[in-house]
Amino acid sequence: MSDDAFIAGLERVDDVRPPKVDSPLKRIALAFIEDKLAIVGLVLFLCVATVAILAPWITPQNPYDLAQLDIMDGGLPPGETSFATGGTYWLGTDLQGRDMLSAIAYGLRISLVVAGISLGFAITIGVMLGVAAAYFGGRVDSFIMRIVDLQLSFPAILIALILLALLGRGVDKVILALVIVQWAYYARTVRSSAIVERRKDYIEAARCLGLSHRRIMFRHLLPNCVPPLIVVATVQVAQAIALEATLSFLGVGVPITEPSLGLLIANGYDYLLSGRYWISLFPGIALVLTIIAINLVGDRLRDVLNPRLQK
Amino acid sequence: MTLLDVRDLKTHFFTRDGVAKAVDGVTFSLERGEILGIVGESGSGKSVTGFSILGLVDPPGKVVSGQIIFDGTDLVAAGEKTIKGLRGKRIAMIFQDPMMTLNPVLRIDTQMVETVLAHEKVSRAEALARARETLTMVGISAPDERLRSYPHQFSGGMRQRVAIAIALLHKPDLIIADEPTTALDVTIQAQILAEVQRLCAQSNTALIWITHDLAVVSGLADRLAVMYAGRIVEEGRTADIIGQPLHPYTRGLIGSVPQGKPHGAMLTQINGMAPSLLNLPEGCRFRPRCPRADEACLVDPPLSEPIRGRGVRCVHPHLETRDEVLAS
Amino acid sequence: MIVYLVRRFGQSLLAIAAMAVLVFVGVYAIGNPVDILINPEANQAEIEATVARLGLDKPLWEQFLLFVWNALHGDLGDSFVYGRPAVEIILERLPATMELAFVALILSVGIGVPLGVLAGLKPDSIAGRSIMAGSILGFSLPNFWQGMLLILVFAVLLGWLPAGGRGETVDVLGMQLSFLTLDGLRHLILPAVNLALFKMSLIIRLTRANTREANLQDYVKFARAKGLSSRRVVLVHILKNIMIPVVTIIGLELGSMVAFAIVTETVFAWPGMGKLLIDSINLLDRPLIVAYLMLTVFIIVTINLVVDVLYSVLDPRVRLSEVKG
What we know:
Distance between the termini of chain B: 41 Å
CATH architecture of the largest domain in chain B: 3-Layer(aba) Sandwich
Order of helices and strands of chain A: HHHEEHHHHHHHH
Largest sheet of chain B: 7 strands, mixed
CATH superfamily of the largest domain in chain B: P-loop containing nucleotide triphosphate hydrolases
Radius of gyration of chain A: 26 Å
Strand content of chain B: 15-25%
Structural class of chain B: alpha/beta
Number of strands of chain A: 2
Helix content of chain A: over 70%
Structural class of chain A: mainly alpha
Oligomer: heterotrimer
């Protein structure tokens, strides 16, 4: 038989090019954009975040500058013209004549700031304790995880509510409550992935080389915990926004001077039954869109980052 | 009379990455009481062939064409209702992993009685009596106690006996056994093999024994069908095939079994890997791995008219004698 | 089994003790207990009397023992607003909350499990996809916002159901229950649905995931190979397997329903203990807050304990390994 023909045949058959080697980040990004809903979520979230950041510069009025409010414009339904300035209130006004569109942008800002700052603190505390638990094991591990278990056995809203009932309302206190409620999720996530990694030989090798605890923990263990951490963080941010809104709605969250979306909804709630639905409904829609956007992104990230589902 | 006649069966899986032709034109037949061994590597389509007969191919898989004529009825054309009436009643199946086939949260009696009641209108007590009797038949002592147990209280071999008992409850005409001994210890394997052989002979039940292990099936089967990449590449009487394999793939399979060779003889191996069913080679599917392949193999060979009493799907079959094979 | 029960019981006691310490530290050590526990409007004589009764003049550890001692006797202080023992007031409101939580639980399981199984059996069908989309929505929308939408649609726009309150109740064994009267039932529907929706989404997701997994198992294929009807395969073989995780979650969620009821009760002005808590926070009725906290912790810990025990009874594998161990 002819070797050349055989080889030619082989080449035709084994039409398998060597796989392109992409950076993990690029691979994840490519996988992420395969899902249309996830793109919608991401774009939506970016829009929401932009509005929140730029609120003071893009809104028609500063809703908390009393000089800019006109009681004559109070309680106007969406699309009405202002008596004072002649501008249009696309989403109506509340009873003080506050433009709801501007109020929502400002409220979004507060909601996102609270969620973002609490995320930062909670993730830092959670990661440090989680990695420490996995790395040191033994008593340290069981002590930290007991606290985590204890805390997670009670609903977050209950813990936050009680804290705020004892501390009083305030942006700083809401952030504190959210951090206390959330750190345990991160600690648990980090610990469970770090402990898998911890058992591998190279950690032992790193120890034998005499690397410091800190270096092993943060240079070797931590990077392996990042994918699940990202997934948990997106879920938790959505939860934090919802929780803050709920607390503010219940009247124990942010103060009246710095109303988040939840407080806006609460303020309009009394007028819901009398037909002035827009005061409450539009902040609610903004809140819901924000949460859904984050959840869509989170859902996709979970699929993309889950090693079990990767082919 | 022929019990089962499978003609040009094609079962394809419609995945996101393309169509996987798991079974692609399989033809064989089976007489009453006959034992057929289907041998092949994982992914050769041997298990899917078994599931196709029972109409148990899960989506995205689908029987796309061909006929499965069981006792005169074409099961592909007849539809779900007919097959459902046969499943467990006239055609039974035994699965590979006994740890997984029994429902972990249901007692053995529940799982046996429901099988009886699925096909016959008898009282629970009668069904229970049948279950007890069948358990004794497959060599399980103290069946009353066993019936009240949960699967996890049994060893692997014991569970497979229970699964066999469930298959035998309705004295089926055909049992399809999908690697039923692979997950078991060697000694248990031998026991189960002997048991199945005895039970089938007793009740004149036909058996399709699906396996990747040529050594196991060669002592059991009357006939063998060797599958590769969704097709039968060689088919005939067990002794003939073992004695003189015609297809290079069969030859490779036999060459890689240590059994029955002089001490110190080299084991041969088949180079390369089974092809992806999504991306099959042109022409003969074994061509990229075949030592005898040439241009002629770029044309897909059909299953031949019987050569020395068997069909083979090869352009260059080994027509040398067995001694030459062993010497090579 | 007994060893397991004792150990599990010990854990529960530990959880309650830990929470008691935290509450004590929060009220007595960080804040000034005189401010927190004594009515700001009380006169000097009243203050002194309460200080003496609660032992606020004694050292901290003695105060703690007294706090525990009083708590064990059901004395968590008197409400400022009502002037009666806080525990008593909360217990009066307990049936309303429990009724709401139970009806919501039944709704979320009764609707959530079938929908989840359906979505799990046919994940790619239109029905399966819409169920999942709905559950993501139920998951994403904050509870109070869902409640507001329900009121907006069913009470304000359609006018079918009342927007709040409890309606007519019937006295059963000393408890006021709504669901036995038509009026009460009409008042119950919206808050119960509101409380149920979030849990329902959770149960749908869980049931779907478990059904999908069970459906791929060999025992399901074997059951079908035995010739069983699809109905029996789903209702017995799949359902019995997925019930174990589902029951666990349901049990744990019952506890959190008591907490989530705070929101629903506030939205629908449902006179349960959650609404009482929010009212107390607004009125700074701190003994009531403390009593609510201790009582809720007790309820949740008890529920978790019962669920764990039920779980071990339900799963023969757990049951037997515990017997052996």
